[in-house]
Amino acid sequence: MKTMLEVKGLTKKVQGRTLLREVGFAVHSGEICGLLGPNGAGKTTLIRVMTGLIRPTAGSIRVAGVEVHRERSRALRKMGAIVENPVFFPYMSGRDNLINLALLDPGLPKNKISSRVEEVLKVVDLVGRADDKVGTYSLGMKQRLGIAQALLGHPEVILLDEPANGLDPIGMRQLRELILKLNREEGITFLISSHLLDEIQRICKRLVVLKDGAVIWQGETGELSGSRDLEEAFVELVSG
């Protein structure tokens, strides 16, 4: 099975503090992997390093075999991401926001932008609201537009940082169904950081658990939860 994400010996130190400590794990093609940990465990820092937004002190990240910090532009063409909340211009329509973002993607030919924007709007079920200003969108719609943005460059893997934060039950369900659809129909690999353990248990077959910047557990979701609720198993693990 092809390794889509490979993290080796990843360490990040800032002003004497160690935010990440020799983090290592792999996510294989077609997997949906959950990234768990208590507040301050290093999840967002890890995703920011993985997307090339900050440089690691040591270690490496490969996306489909391409090293992120040596060949960032090539690696990022294989990756889509939503780090924290997606940011759009509220006074512009959803379609125009996506067109603007697509123009910034050097890997997307200019003559393909319009058709690609229409494709991703259809995938995330926003065609009917594409001409409305983003300022009128619900939080769930903004998250779906964020995933549309992440899809623009035909990524092989998508990283999501707390994608369901603040969503109501309907928005959470729509987001979950979209992730499962993209995984099933497009073969996209996902790494999803979240504290919503019920959602993670529903969609992630594998888990990586961080505590104090280090991996303390990784494996199949069922191996951690067993016959118990994932929340109970997780609290027991991180409290030990």
From TrEMBL:
InterPro entries: AAA+_ATPase, ABC_transporter-like_ATP-bd, ABC_transporter-like_CS, P-loop_NTPase
Pfam name, any one: ABC_tran
Keyword rRNA processing: no
Record's keyword terms, sorted: ATP-binding, Nucleotide-binding, Transport
Domain spans labelled ABC transporter: 5-237
MF terms (GO), sorted A to Z: ATP binding
Assigned protein family: Belongs to the ABC transporter superfamily.
Name of the protein in its database record: ABC transporter ATP-binding protein
